[in-house]
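Side project, low priority. Logging it here so it doesn't get lost.
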Amino acid sequence: LGLINRSIRLWSNPQETVFDPFAGIGSTGYEALLLDRKFIGIELKESYYRCAVRNLQTALSRKTQMQLL
């Protein structure tokens, strides 16, 4: 996740959209959401998609908790 985080910070700005055509379990989206970016991902495998949805929901919950602190 560290490499993904660094890449997103280097090549995008807050509020921009990060696109991942091979989203897998949502690692890129997870980091993008935590870094205040929007995310669009594509995944063909249904089991990976379901896992990505859970991971993205976790990122949104974590981001909300961090904003409250």
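Brief comment: The longest strand covers residues 17-20.
Revisit when time allows.
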